Amino acid sequence: FTSIAADLDASSLDTRKARKLATTWKLPEAFNELSHLTSRQDIHSRTAALIEKVSTPGEHHARLADWPFRLYITTNYDHLLETASSGQLVSVGNRGSELHKIAGGVQDVVWHIHGGSRLSVDISQLVVTKSDYDDFYPNSNAVDRLKALSTTHRCVFFGFGFTDEDFNYVLQAVGRLSHSGRPSFAFLGYK
C-alpha cells in the first residue's frame, strides 16, 4: 500500500484519506480510496507489479509444494508455490471458465481465489479494493465453487489472516459444511 500511495503522491494526487484508512488496517477501504484517484484496474496492475518483485520461493513454499494435496486454495496473489513445485502445480484464476477447472478430479492446481498476479484479467481479478470484496463476497461464482468443494473435499487454506473479515465470512460457511470425517484446515503464520 505504502509504495502505491507514494507513487500516486508523486503524481500530485492526494492520498491522505487512503493513508489514514491504512493506519487503522482497513486496507481494502484504503485501496478503494486510491482507486477513486486512478481506477481499480490501475490499482490491480500496480499491486501485481509489486507482488512480482518477489520471485524466489521461500522454505515454506517448497515444503507446501511437496505436500500431497490435489488442490491448493490461496488468497495470495503471488505464484511462489507454483514456482517452488518446479512446474508440477498449475495456477487457476477466479473468473469465468477458470472455475470449471476446479471440479471433479482436479489435481495439481493452485486456485488463486483472490486472483493471481501473473494471470490475465479475463481469467483472474485481483481482490484488493473494498469494491472488489463487495463484488466477490458473500455471493459469487467463485464463492459458490468454494462451498461446493468443501462439501466433497477436505480443504486446506493458507495465505490469509483471520483479520480478513470478508474471507472469514466464507470460512464460517465452509466450516458449517465440513464434518469430523472430512475437516477443513487453515495454516496461519504467527510472530
Walkthrough of the structure:
By secondary structure, this protein is of the alpha/beta class. Helices cover 44% and strands 9% of the residues. It has nine helices and five strands. The chain has helices spanning 2-10, 16-23, 27-37, 40-51, 59-65, 80-84, 130-136, 141-152, 165-177, and strands spanning 71-74, 90-92, 109-112, 156-158, 185-187. A five-stranded parallel sheet has the order 2-3-1-4-5, with no helix packed on it. Helix 9 (165-177) links the parallel strand 4 and strand 5. Helix 3 (27-37) packs across helix 4. The longest helix is centred in the last third of the chain and has 13 residues, at 165-177. It is globular and about 55 Å long. The two termini are 21 Å apart. The mean pLDDT is 86.
Which sequence of strands runs across the widest sheet? 2-3-1-4-5
**Kindly, what is the distance between the CA atoms of the first and last residues, rounded to a whole number of angstroms?**
21 Å
Low-confidence stretches: none
Q: Measured on Cα atoms, how large is the radius of gyration? A: 17 Å
Overall form: globular
In total, the number of strands is 5
Return the structural class. Answer: alpha/beta
Strand content: 5-15%
Main sheet makeup: 5 strands, parallel
Number of helices: 9
Helix and strand pattern: HHHHHEHEEHHEHE
Kindly report the average pLDDT value: 86
The percentage helix is: 40-55%
